[in-house]
Amino acid sequence: SEGSKSYKYLVLGGGNAAGYVARALVEKGVDKSEAAIVSREEVAPYERPALSKAFLFADPPARLPGFHTCVGGGGDRQAPEWYEENGIDLNLNEEIVVADLNGKKIKSKSGAEFGFEKLIVATGCAPIKLSKLEGADLKGIHYLRENADALELYDSLHAHKGEEVLIVGGGYIGMEVAAAAAIVGCKPKLIFPEEHMMSRLFFPAMAKKYEAFYKEKGVEILKDGYLCEGFAGDGEGNLAGVKVAKDGKQEVIPGKLCVIGVGARPNAQLFSDQLETELGGIKVNGKFESSVKDVYAIGDVASFPLKKYNRMTRMEHVAHARQSAAHAVDALFDSATADYDYLPYFYSRVFDLSWQFFGDSVGEPVLIGDIPKMSAFWIENGQVNGVFVEGPTAEDTETMRAIASKRPTVDVDELSALSDPDEALKL
Ligand code: FAD
SUPFAM superfamilies, alphabetically (predicted)? Predict the structure, then answer.
């Protein structure tokens, strides 16, 4: 019937990972209308990291179709025409609200039904909302995940030039949005309860360098106990400030615009009674197979075995979205495909800085150099687990990848005594 379609390969979600699945399926030579994407978003898959970067501050700003997948991974730019030309159905503006995995079909809010032989779940994450806090519905409070959110945030930032922008959360969203707000000409205040920014990766000595840099760029940092407890209104439904508590004392930080970046949760609820979960995500094996036959999960929503470190993990990073997509498609077509062996890689760009990290941030940290060039190492029992470089060259990137893969043994005292970040990379 009109409202019912069926596919051999159905991808649920139209984000970063979905775009790379489409590319891999086309490379395998799928037939016309054998494969489809179903997405809640109104646009074809794109490189999500752009939303907190050039999208917000560049002149002219990055806009679709400029950053559709797979430009970030060095592939074709898959604008909607690409899907049409390659015979992959793009079902946009369709939010899936029912999943019947045994019956092999999913249903959307609008009533459309999509059958499948193989389902690849790529639903990503949703921002954690502070919706239980007082004043959470006030106008002027933003979250950032999708193209539509970023368009609204862009307009708000540009409408509040010269004014305070309150950013709640000191992770990468907070850091990137604070940098964008400063570049646009707003007065950003970065508010978070931890002792320093990027507390999941940075260690105190490293965070100190970035915090000093941020202050120089005009970003005020309210940290170490500054917990957001609610939002103050102006009496007309608009935000007037963020309520914080610091050492038991309450205060209101005034501002009409607030961006919240306090983490994300995997979109796995749809399947919670049908699929095994772990670490909040859909549990998969090294071939991205879930606990139900013919159902796969990739990208942010998947909890997978991190072979190198012999533990389960979930990664909210674009490199994993891309690589898991390609690997899952390989496994779909060839059951002899080896298990996924991922080397964790993170990056961020703020102001004119850019950093990269490879490996595992476990062990004693050692920092060498200063912004604009520094290197850092995480060392456990003399072995390097993780390596970080601010301002890496293309060659450094390859060196870092090799170090994190080989995990060489080093003398911590000798390494700590170095002052040249490049010298330190010659491990
Ligand atoms: P997503 O790209 O989030 O895609 C999920 C898709 O599923 C979306 O289209 C969503 O609408 C759809 N969906 C969900 N539920 C349903 C449903 N029920 N029905 C229909 N559709 C549904 N990573 C980095 O490594 N470096 C960075 O610098 C970086 N910057 C980032 C900046 C921002 C602002 C954000 C939000 C993320 C950033 N990331 C970054 C993380 C990176 O974007 C994610 O890891 C990546 O997008 C994950 O891909 P995914 O396909 O798993 O999920």
Answer: FAD/NAD(P)-binding domain, FAD/NAD-linked reductases, dimerisation (C-terminal) domain
